[in-house]
Design goal:
Elements lengths: L13 E5 L2 E5 L4 E6 L4 E7 L22 E4 L3 E6 L2 E6 L5 E5 L2 E6 L5 E12 L3 E6 L2 E6 L3 E16 L6 E6 L11 E4 L6 E8 L3 E5 L5 E6 L2 E9 L2 E7 L3 H12 L12 E4 L6 H14 L5 E4 L22 H10 L3 E6 L8 H8 L15 H14 L7 E4 L17 H13 L10 H16 L7 E3 L11 E4 L7 H15 L6 E2 L26 H14 L5 E3 L18 H15 L1 H13 L5 E3 H4 L4 H4 L5 E3 L3 E3 L18 E6 L3 E4 L5 E3 L2 E6 L7 E4 L3 E5 L11 E5 L5 E7 L13 E8 L4 E4 L7 E3 L2
Parallel strand pairs: 21-22, 21-28, 22-23, 23-24, 24-25, 25-26, 26-27, 38-42
Antiparallel strand pairs: 1-2, 2-3, 3-4, 4-20, 5-6, 6-7, 7-8, 8-9, 9-13, 10-13, 11-12, 13-19, 14-16, 15-18, 16-17, 17-20, 18-19, 29-30, 30-31, 31-36, 32-35, 33-34, 33-36, 37-38, 39-40, 40-41
Family: Belongs to the glycosyl hydrolase 31 family.
Organism: Candidatus Faeciplasma avium
Protein name: DUF5110 domain-containing protein
Length: about 775
């Protein structure tokens, strides 16, 4: 007969209060509950000893001085603070979480928290090789002896979700998940993948894992759990937001406010791989101005450094001479400059020599060590003396994961294998429990460095990777080097809203996909080998462009062909070009709306884009719909993600799309037609626009036509009647950090639906149109 060893008992043997926390002991583990606020509860567990109260750098310091109540009924122990109550089973140690409206979430009834101790290892003393990748030269550890670098745990937090809730978050997923129910997510960093350890439920609760380790989220027949790869203890925060928006606000309370970007960052950003001189940049800027196409920023991709000096933070004096003079000339055209910078300078560079001399490189000596405060200071000093002093306006922190081992391969491995490879490569470079921390500290280096230099210029950091708290360093995330296909476009719509639901408000894409053509590498698999003339690609690019006009950041970028709007026309066909100009003008007309939404992301800890389930959590269709989303508080955007006007269109295509309207009244943005919500409708999808709907009761500020973002616009308001409404118009100096000191105004523009009047809280005169 087989012997079945008995697991350690999770029955609570004693409990007591200590330093504002509730400590519960069992044979299996010690559990600690610490109220952070009346809506946030920290839960820590350890099988041997008392959990540490240390917090990672991503979490802001807090004092656990909240009032709480403790009671016992013989079967359970109740621990409550404000609106949040945790009920712990004395028999199993499992926790149920309650709010004012009832149950939020249950942990599994048995073995809700599991630990598997192990010794983490790192390879050393073996051989390495240099490989040239799309992200520059990388060091790959080929072999080596293994050394033990510490004792850690694999942990499981086992949960029981409700059947009528959707789960969002965990960062950016290229699979196009619109709801994490029934999914498995390997959460680690990679090109096209961003790990953020936040779950948000439409029931109004959230869980923020307090870890810098990769995790695996699972919700299927094998159970619902969060597995942490390498931790010293199981540690997380339960967020009782009451709504998904409330959860995001609590996440920001723990990890920091989202810094407000300068107003120009919400205009159009033009990029491609790549501009090759200041002369070319200036020619492009002048062409935009002569054509009267809106643009506020040009982005210089890699290789602006001296030839043969990958990643050196200085300009090549031949194609990029007199940087102060040339950047000033760009500025005179009303165009800002964002510059590509990298964390992996080549060994031949002066930047590398300085970092190496100071001992500020990672163990593999291929990246600077962003986890080291001294290395961060050195990195910024190099930026300031080589680039920033010439007037560079923003940073493109490329390759900030900073390692993506799967991009060294020709054939893509299954996700579970890529996860393992990331951990192996990470442990060669970083502490095993801090593999996800690099991009957070990389952004910190840039933000804190620039803030120490000036208060007059807001930080702009376009970066490929982030982590919890990165929003406080003014990060704009983009979805990586994606491919050009209709399937990718469709998945990207969901990827953006899922990322925003992870607590970071600024996100964008490479319009049209970065890789357009098809190559032998798994990641370079676009569908179009002749994009310069293929109208099928032009249609895809146009639909991508139209969608991106309704993203927090409006930016074009990619390789295989140029990306300026005038590329997409020929002598006999200007339909695509004309439609792009219409989308561009629309973006600029909405700048007051977008900038105000961005301000509320700071002042109210809100989101600019979000899944429909945030606003309609009780609607089962809206909860799991990935092809539509809210843009600000009033606009529902429905991107067109299938071909209709080229040879790729299905025979007999009627050029309509199905749109779901949640309950309430809706107006078509372009036609003004009114619809009663609560079901699906077929909507025409002309080439020059995508379906966008406005909630009844909305007040939209529409700016006078302009080809650049202005400090202050001439505004006409569009009123969408049917109920009372209000728009909060945010205005400030457009740049600098005066807003942190109260140097701004918020004017409430109020619509009284009964009286049919529109008034401003500061009594200014208003120009407005009533739609319908």
């Amino acid at each position: 007969m087989l012997y079945a060893p008995r697991p350690k008992s999770a029955k609570i043997s004693e409990y007591f209060l200590e330093n504002g926390s509730l400590i519960l002991r069992s044979e299996a583990q010690t559990l600690r509950l610490t109220p952070v606020s009346d809506k946030i509860l920290r839960i820590s567990a350890l099988p041997d000893g008392v959990p540490s109260d240390d917090i990672p750098p991503e979490i802001l310091p807090y004092s656990n001085s909240c009032e709480f109540k403790l009671s016992r009924d013989g079967k359970s122990i109740s621990f409550s603070s404000g609106e949040l109550k945790a009920v712990i089973s004395e028999e199993t140690g499992s926790i149920e979480y309650f709010g004012p409206s009832g149950l939020y979430l249950r942990e599994a009834k048995r073995e809700s928290r599991l630990f598997d101790g192990y010794k983490a290892k790192r390879r050393f003393g073996g051989s390495t090789k240099k490989v040239m990748t799309a992200d520059g030269e990388k060091t790959v550890v080929v072999s080596g002896e293994e050394e033990i670098i510490g004792d850690f745990y694999h942990t499981w937090l086992r949960l029981c979700f409700s059947t009528d809730e959707a789960i969002y978050g965990l960062g950016q997923h290229e699979e196009g998940f619109s709801d994490l129910r029934g999914k498995t997510v390997y959460s680690y960093h990679a090109n096209r993948k961003i790990a953020i350890p936040l779950l948000v439920s439409t029931k109004g609760w959230g869980i923020l894992m307090s870890t810098e380790s990769p995790i695996i989220y699972n919700d299927n027949e094998y159970g619902s759990y969060i597995y942490s790869e390498t931790v010293k203890q199981l540690d997380f925060y339960f967020l009782a937001g009451g709504s998904p928006d409330g959860v995001i606000a609590l996440y920001r309370q723990l990890t920091g406010k989202a810094g407000l970007l300068p107003k120009w960052a919400f205009g159009y950003m033009q990029s491609r791989e790549r501009y090759e001189s200041f002369s070319e940049l200036l020619d492009i800027a002048r062409e935009f101005r002569s054509r009267k196409i809106g643009v506020d920023c040009l982005i210089q991709d890699w290789c602006s450094w001296p030839q043969g000096e990958w990643g050196q933070k200085s300009f090549d004096p031949v194609p990029y001479p007199d940087p102060d003079k040339n950047i000033d000339e760009l500025h005179s055209l009303g165009v800002k400059l964002i510059l590509s910078i990298w964390p992996n300078p080549a060994p031949s560079t002066g930047d590398y020599a300085e970092l190496d001399k100071n001992g500020e490189l990672l163990i593999t000596k291929d990246f600077y060590n962003s986890l080291d405060p001294c290395a961060r200071k050195t990195y910024w000093n190099q930026l300031e003396r080589g680039l920033y002093r010439y007037g560079v306006d923003g940073w493109w922190c490329d390759n900030s994961e900073p390692f993506s081992p799967e991009w060294n391969l020709m054939i893509r491995k299954p996700e579970c294998k890529a996860y393992d490879d990331f951990i192996l490569a990470g442990c060669d470079r970083l502490p095993p429990d801090r593999l996800l921390a690099y991009p957070f500290h990389h952004a910190q280096a840039v933000y804190e460095g620039q803030r120490n230099v000036t208060d007059q210029k807001r930080v702009v950091n376009l970066t490929r990777c982030a982590y919890s708290g990165s929003q406080r360093y003014s990060c704009i995330l983009w979805s990586g080097d994606i491919c050009a296909s209709w399937d990718t476009l469709k998945k990207q719509v969901a990827a953006g809203t899922m990322f925003s639901a992870s607590g970071l408000p600024y996100w964008t894409v490479d319009i049209g996909g970065f890789f357009v053509k098809n190559s032998v590498s798994w990641y370079w698999k676009g569908d179009y080998d002749s994009p310069e003339s293929d109208k099928a690609y032009w249609e895809l690019y146009l639909r991508w462009y139209q969608w991106a006009a309704f993203l927090p950041i409006f930016r074009a970028h990619g390789t295989d062909l140029k990306r300026e709007p005038w590329v997409f026309q020929d002598s006999g066909d200007t339909r695509f070009y004309d439609a792009m100009l219409k989308a561009n003008r629309l973006r600029y007309s909405l700048i007051p709306y977008i900038y105000s939404a961005a301000a509320m992301a700071y002042f109210e800890d809100g989101s600019i884009i979000k899944p429909l389930g945030f606003d309609y959590p009780d609607d089962p269709v809206a909860r799991s719909l990935g092809g539509q989303y809210m843009f600000g508080k009033s606009l529902m955007v429905c991107p067109v993600t299938e071909p209709m006007y080229s040879h790729e269109a299905e025979p007999g295509c009627d050029r309509t799309v199905k749109v779901y309207l949640p309950a309430g009244g809706w107006y078509h943005f372009f036609t003004g037609a009114y619809y009663e919500g609560g079901g699906w409708i077929d909507v025409s999808a002309p080439l020059d626009s995508i379906p966008v709907f406005v909630k009844e009761g909305s007040v939209l500020p529409i700016a006078k036509e302009s080809c650049r973002v202005l400090p202050k616009e001439i505004i006409t308001y569009r009123v969408y009647p049917g109920r009372d409404g209000c728009f909060s118009l945010y205005e400030d100096s457009a740049d600098g950090y005066g807003y942190e000191r109260g140097e701004y105004s918020i004017t409430n523009i109020v619509w009284d639906d009964k009286l049919k009047t529109l008034t401003a809280s500061d009594s200014r005169k208003l120009s407005y149109i009533i739609v319908g």
